[in-house]
Amino acid sequence: MDLDFVANNWHLFAALVVISLLIGFDTLRRGGGGANQVSAVQLPQLINKENAVVVDVCEPDEFKKGHIPKAINIPVSQIKDQLGQLEKFRTKNRPIVLSCRNGQQASRAATVLRKNEFETVYTLSGGLAAWEKENLPLER
Questions:
Q1: How far is the C-alpha of 124 from the C-alpha of 131, rounded, in Å?
Q2: What confidence tens digit (pLDDT) does each residue in 76-109 have?
Q3: Which range, 1-10, 60-69, 90-99, is most confident?
Q4: Cβ density class 104-119: b for 16+ within 10 Å, e for less
Q5: Domain coordinates of the chain in residue numbers?
Q6: Residue 124: beta bridge partners?
């Protein structure tokens, strides 16, 4: 890059850096905490073929309003304290799929699991909202 151009147009260069950082931050924020994402359409296949377990990380009152059938509820605020409950799935090599209303809480929970060496962790892309959009069943 020509240094004279950068010096003469420093404000454009600064804007480019800021925009790049914002795009990078947004990409990391949406990245699922290092977890792979699975779509609402793909999730039933993952459950049926790989015996995946769905962990809904919403608060209990939200969970009672509707969740993916057979999902277990561990609120994101308790995920660190409940790692022992999830350990049995890791030892059986069962994938863990984290879900919540829109995907943000699941991403936070995925970060915790990845930091604790859970390797087969997914987040439901778009959360329960995407599941409902595909007219997939809810358990209440």
A1: 8
A2: 999 999 999 999 998 788 999 999 999 899 999 9
A3: 60-69
A4: ebbbbbbbbbeeeebe
A5: 1-30, 32-133
A6: 38
Q: Which residue has the tokens 């990078």?
A: 24
Q: Is residue 100 within 8 Å of 76, Cβ to Cβ?
A: yes
CATH class of residue range 32-133: alpha beta
pLDDT number for residue 135: 96
* Per-residue tokens: 128: 């329960």
Q: How many CB atoms lie within 10 A of CB 45?
A: 12
Q: What average pLDDT does the chain have?
A: 87
Structure pTM?
Answer: 0.77
CA distance 128 to 17: 35
Helix (H) or strand (E) holding 88, with range, is helix 83-91
135 token code pair = 């007219």
DSSP three-state, residue 32: coil
Q: Which amino acid is residue 50, in one-letter code?
A: E
